[in-house]
Amino acid sequence: MSLIVKKFGGSSVADNDKLRNVAQVVTQSHAAGHQVVVVVSAQGDTTDDLLEKAAGLNPGASRREMDMLLVCGEQMSASLLAIAIEKLGFPVISLTGWQAGMQTDSNHSAARIKKIDPERVRVELDRHNIVVIAGFQGINKFGDVTTIGRGGSDTTAVAFAASLNAELCQIYTDVDGVYTADPRVVSTAKKLNEISFDEMLELASLGAQVLASRSVEMAKRLRVNLEVLSSFRNVPGTIVKEVVKMENMQVSGVARDNNVARIALVGLRDMPGVAAKIFSLLAQAKINVDIILQSIGRHDTKDISFTIAKNYLDEARSLLEEHRESLAYESLVVSDQISKVSAVGAGMVNNPGVASRMFEALASAGINIQMISTSEIKVSVLIDLNDSDRAVQVIHQEFFG
Ligand code: ADP
Ligand code: ASP
Ligand code: MG
How far is the CA of 75 from the centre of ligand 2 (A)? Predict the structure, then answer.
């Protein structure tokens, strides 16, 4: 008998038929003698719908009240799934995140997990219950509910798997594993039988939505056995683990992120301290900067462009406009019609040429590159949003045929 954590995403619990399907998957595992802990997301687009509803009332709602609202989505799924499992005659109990012992800091909407006290879950498992936990949520030291960031139910699942010392953490979703690119964008994408934590972390951070990047980072750090598989088809998924068989691949996947905006400060003074000033302003506002490009100075001026997540664009723009005088730039140009497309692969380290092949593929397709950023295991380019799908397709074609 082993303890298994199973997480089901929004599309897997979207309606009653899908909940019945999940109830079957879960109860089969319980009937096979396993202790089963289930983590669920909100149904379908519930989280987006709740965000929209609140924005209709007050676009500037406090993050505390937004958390109070959003946690309801996951709680609905948890209770509905428990109700579906009861119907099949199995012992089950659903718990909110805080009933299950998930403690976080107070950074509402992006709280960090501080600690899990799994006592209650253990007691329920000892009573032979299937335990269904509402994902994405916790409680802070003041007794207020918190959420842990979009896609956070993946992280909830990994955190419980670690704290309960589970044998396996299975992330069930609407595709049957991790592919070489988003199978909805590239029809010829191939399913990977396994992928290393490092490559998966890079793919997830670069926009491959299939796993939240924090969940991968946590699974690597806490040595959780992780599998991504389909809720609807009983076929083997993708195992994410420390070391994988070398298949001699330079590139293991292509990812893209459309949640990107670019800001350019044109005509800055070409002197020490200018970049420091800009980026410390942004850092103080907790705005993460991704790719940075500085042009070669001309006539004592230079331009600095950088990218941030789209949802921080308004805040960043206001901040920079507020400090226009002290930063002394001529103009500020922003664009949110851009996309970041990346090729990822641990095999790149010893194989120069990945970047040139990628640029060549984009050039042949007539796609213009606006910015480039590289690391040991990835090459990213910033391109026009309209070219995004085609860029993913031609880069995938270049490396995977
Ligand atoms: P869930 O609701 O189960 O959390 P998500 O929508 O968050 O599901 O993640 C699954 C989606 O991730 C898939 O439907 C697929 O379109 C997308 N995706 C992006 N990149 C990849 C990839 N490399 N492999 C598999 N799926 C991917
Ligand atoms: N419901 C949350 C979201 O849509 C958390 C999750 O699905 O993992 O981001
Ligand atoms: Mg998800």
Answer: 12
